[in-house]
Amino acid sequence: MKVNIDESWKSELKEEFEKPYFVQLTEFVKNEYQSHRCYPKGKAIFAAFDYCKFDDLKVVIIGQDPYHGVDQANGLCFSVKDHIAMPPSLINIFKEIEQDLTKPFPKTGNLERWAKQGVLLLNATLTVRAHQAGSHQGKGWEQFTDQVISTISAKKENVVFLLWGGFAKKKAQLIDKNKHHILTSGHPSPLSANRGYWFGNKHFSKTNAFLKSKHLEPVEW
């Protein structure tokens, strides 16, 4: 089955694309995009993989759903397109980076620059119907993205997994803790962050410290 995804990932996941659930998922997504406004745009559904090649991968951040507001989603979790107002979770991510690394607050919420450095910004569900959060959950995306995490765990070493919030933390069971480095905290959404579960986690400096300890290039956050 032809899937428009970067070649480095295609070779790792090719068996997944032939499975009945993925064929059904593809049909569902096609119908949704034809019948409703959905995000991200079709060509950006696999953007997380296109910007972060399998061989370059060194950090994984797991989100749940794409943004469902007008023109926000660009296929990378927590990221928005240039010139789009930053959602509250993303603002809190940048505030933590500001405190942790004393870096200035960025002008754009577009995280393509992270992805190009080997950060896989993976939503568990890769598509959504406009203004309907969670509308494409339970259709097969989660099975696919769980397999992505399992593949990374099995075939890579020394990857940092950043698991923020209860949903992401459940993915720890898919990761070999002896081969990889897992950091967990509350979610950066205001609900969690304002109750003390996000700020001060220092995940960005901790990630770079681990990468340096393995003689890998740190991320320019």
Automatic annotation (TrEMBL):
<protein>
    <submittedName>
        <fullName>Uracil-DNA glycosylase</fullName>
        <ecNumber>3.2.2.27</ecNumber>
    </submittedName>
</protein>
<keyword id="KW-0378">Hydrolase</keyword>
<keyword id="KW-0326">Glycosidase</keyword>
